[in-house]
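User: For my dataset I need records formatted as: sequence, then structure tokens, nothing else. Please produce one.
Assistant:
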Amino acid sequence: MRTTVWFLLWVCVCCIAPTCCWHDLDNSEYDCWPLHKPNEYNMIDCGGLEMAWIVRPPETVKTGEGFSVTYSVTAQDSFYHWAVKTTSSQTVPS
């Protein structure tokens, strides 16, 4: 059980968070997608996983110019309950 929760946290932080964080470059609500066949129509609730900018991107972003951002990821208690519930109803690749 504990291994499953840590695996889900790792998946969210390393796989889902990087894809979810580019969302209008503000602190608006983020969307999460399933691991299999994600598209614009099958967004899911992030289940208590909250992200916020610490170092925001520049106001103007140009093609070919690199920039760095920093954001925080906070997992509320509800995230762990959601992660366990979601895992029991889905197959997570190993």
